[in-house]
Structure formats: structure tokens, C-alpha cells
């Protein structure tokens, strides 16, 4: 009989790929070493815990802009594009005692202050699109480029079919030369509406291209998540308009993925719908009890070859269940196995948040979270370690 612990971890992981969930659980209970290997294979984590950072965010405005945070290398940036004193806050997360540093933004002549824009980065540049113009109170479609080297803010030229003004949408780099936006809250004839616009912007040519004629586009929404992982762009959650002045958590519980190489949308169904004759782009997933359900204000990040979802507000108000503490569960989706699982992050506060994964100093650090604590109402941040 072969002793599993006598062979390499890489070979053990290959063997684990052939085991179903019940077999993995049985194997993990045989000894502590195999428990750690199985746990890391299944979740990318081993006994994860929350490690909150004790210091306060020095500027109350950061709490309004935390969803616009961008990670470049080990440094987290938050651009506060306010009416007065627009500021770039930054913090090096690899420092032993990280602290926030504020830098004045060098503004262009035609600067417009915004809130609730969409942000992303390519190399040392941060791109900010849209938001609510704080001088007019209306959505805008302005596009900024912020250079973290000289702290200069530029307004970019926009050609082609320019997306309509919007806020609470998402933007992501899909390669070193293109940005993609999706969704958001728009206004027409003083009536707000959810958008499902999907558009790309060529940074070199300064040209927008709208892709709204593509089949299988995700449902219209705002305040959702968008994540670039390998060759796909994932979208999940958000909110939807049900009347002119009322927004609720979106009905959609599925994860959507844009296949960048093949230019098509995929839909990962998270419900218990029985397999039927559906389009090939609609993919059934297992482990439905562990899927995240309906959420808004959640964080989505990469965990090895998986997609992780945590935090936010959930439709069934489970965040108020003090005994079970369901908000501590990290929901993990495997696109390869098309299945969900979850693992508890001990001590995680109830929070709306965003998350970042980088090359951290200290191998136990997995993800950095920043958001609003539901109990204190203050901006909080910390690490998922494990």
C-alpha cells in the first residue's frame, strides 16, 4: 500500500481531482497533514481567519469611495475626486506598519468632481469612468486617466460610440490596451433605469465600441461586481430598479462570464433547476446550497483557480443571524468543476466590501478587504489569513 504522505504534494493534488466531495471529506479526516492538503486544494485556504487592522482611515471621504479602490503592486490607491481638495490616498500593504499617505491630485483645467464612478488600472495608470457629477448632481460619462507616478489627472478623448452617462457601474482592464465597462444606473427624461450596456475602450486609439448586440448578455443592473480572471470577465450580484425611487437587491443569483478569447457570454446557473434543453452558454453548477444567492455590495476575488465571493447584503437578511453568523462564509466557485463550496472565515465582521489579492509579504495573507462595517458604520479593513 502506498503512503500518500510519501509522495509529492503535486501528485496528491492530481489524485484529489478524481475524488468526489464525500471522498475528499473522508480523506481529510484521516490525519492533520491530509486535512491541510485537502482543505487547500478544495478552498485555497486552511482554517481561514479575519485579521482586522486596528488603525482608522484618516479621511471620512474614503468611506464614500472605497469601492473605487485600485491595487497596483502592493499599494492600494483610493482617488477621492471631491469638489475641494481632490486627494489620492495610498497605503503600502507590504509595510510592517502600513499607514495611509495622502497626495494632492494635479487636476486638469476642466476637472469635474465625481462620486460613484467605475475604476480600474493598467500598469501605473488608474482609469476612472463616469459617476455622478457633484456640481450638477447628474450622471456623467467623463473618462479620467490618473498617473500614480506624477499624480497627474488627465481627461481622455473619447471617439466612436460613446456610452451614455452612468454611475455605479463597473470597469475592468481586459488586456494592456483595452478597458471594458458593464451596466450601471443611467437617467433618461429624469427617470433612472438600469443598463446592460457592454462596451470596450481602446486606450491607444481612444475609441469606444458598443457590444450590445451580443447574445446572452447579463441582465441590466448596477452596484454589481466585475472581476477579470485569466481569460474571462466575471459579473455577479448588484441591485435593480423596481420604481423611479426604489432599488432592491437584484433577482439574479447567477454568475456570468465573458469569454474574452471567443467573444461570447456564459451563464453559470446557481439554482436547483433540473437539466433541460437550454442554450450551450447556460451552464449548470453543483453545490447549490453553498452558492451566494442574491447579494449587493459584495466582494469578488481570485483564489487560486477559483472565484471567491464574500460580504455584502443578502436578500433573506441572514446578516442578522447572530447565532449562525452566515456572513462569515466565503463562497467559492470552481469554473473547472462547475461547482460551489464554502468555508467559514472566523471573526469576519458584517460588511459591504471590496477585496484584493496580490504578492503579499507573508504567505498566510490571502486577501485584503476594505469596506463599511455594518455594526459600527465605519470604514474597516483587514486580511483574510489562512
TrEMBL record:
It comes from the Eukaryota. InterPro entries: F-box-like_dom_sf, F-box_dom, Kelch-typ_b-propeller, Rab9_kelch_effector. The keyword Repeat applies. Residues 1-53 form the F-box domain. Keywords: Kelch repeat, Repeat. Coiled coil: none annotated. The keyword Repeat applies. It holds the Pfam family F-box. SMART domains: FBOX. PANTHER family: RAB9 EFFECTOR PROTEIN WITH KELCH MOTIFS. This is 8755_t:CDS:1. The lineage of its organism: Eukaryota, Fungi, Fungi incertae sedis, Mucoromycota, Glomeromycotina.
Amino acid at each position: 500500500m502506498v503512503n500518500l504522505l510519501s509522495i509529492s504534494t503535486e501528485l496528491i493534488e492530481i489524485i484529489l481531482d478524481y475524488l468526489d466531495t464525500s471522498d475528499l471529506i473522508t480523506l481529510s479526516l484521516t490525519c492533520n497533514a491530509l486535512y491541510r492538503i485537502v482543505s487547500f486544494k478544495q478552498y485555497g485556504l486552511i482554517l481561514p481567519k479575519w485579521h482586522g487592522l486596528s488603525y482608522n482611515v484618516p479621511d471620512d471621504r474614503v468611506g464614500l469611495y472605497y469601492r473605487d479602490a485600485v491595487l497596483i503592486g502592493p499599494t492600494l490607491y483610493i482617488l477621492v475626486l471631491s469638489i475641494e481638495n481632490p486627494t489620492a490616498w495610498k497605503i503600502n500593504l507590504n509595510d510592517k506598519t502600513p499607514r495611509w499617505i495622502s497626495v494632492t491630485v494635479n487636476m486638469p483645467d476642466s476637472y469635474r468632481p465625481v462620486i460613484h464612478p467605475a475604476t480600474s488600472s493598467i500598469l501605473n495608470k488608474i482609469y476612472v469612468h463616469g459617476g455622478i457629477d457633484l456640481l450638477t448632481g447628474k450622471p456623467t460619462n467623463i473618462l479620467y486617466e490618473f498617473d500614480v507616478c506624477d499624480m497627474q489627472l488627465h481627461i481622455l478623448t473619447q471617439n466612436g460610440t460613446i456610452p451614455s452617462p452612468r454611475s455605479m457601474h463597473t470597469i475592468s482592464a481586459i488586456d494592456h490596451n483595452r478597458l471594458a465597462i458593464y451596466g450601471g444606473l443611467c437617467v433618461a427624461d429624469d427617470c433612472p433605469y438600469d443598463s446592460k450596456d457592454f462596451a470596450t475602450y481602446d486606450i491607444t486609439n481612444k475609441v469606444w465600441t458598443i457590444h450590445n448586440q451580443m447574445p446572452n448578455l447579463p441582465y441590466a443592473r448596477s452596484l454589481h461586481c466585475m472581476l477579470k480572471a485569466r481569460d474571462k470577465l466575471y459579473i455577479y450580484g448588484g441591485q435593480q430598479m423596481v420604481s423611479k425611487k426604489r432599488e432592491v437587491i437584484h433577482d439574479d443569483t447567477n454568475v456570468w462570464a465573458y469569454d474574452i478569447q471567443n467573444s461570447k457570454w456564459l451563464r453559470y446557473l446557481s439554482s436547483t433547476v433540473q437539466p433541460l434543453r437550454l442554450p450551450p452558454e447556460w451552464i449548470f453548477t453543483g453545490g447549490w446550497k453553498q452558492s451566494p444567492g442574491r447579494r449587493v455590495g459584495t466582494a469578488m476575488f481570485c483564489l487560486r483557480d477559483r472565484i471567491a465571493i464574500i460580504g455584502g447584503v443578502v436578500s433573506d437578511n441572514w446578516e442578522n443571524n447572530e447565532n449562525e453568523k452566515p456572513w462569515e462564509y466565503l463562497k467559492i466557485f470552481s469554473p473547472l468543476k462547475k461547482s460551489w463550496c464554502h468555508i467559514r472565515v472566523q471573526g469576519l465582521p458584517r460588511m459591504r466590501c471590496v477585496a484584493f489579492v496580490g504578492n503579499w509579504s507573508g504567505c498566510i495573507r490571502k486577501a485584503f478587504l476594505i469596506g463599511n462595517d455594518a455594526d459600527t458604520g465605519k470604514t474597516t479593513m483587514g486580511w483574510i489569513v489562512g
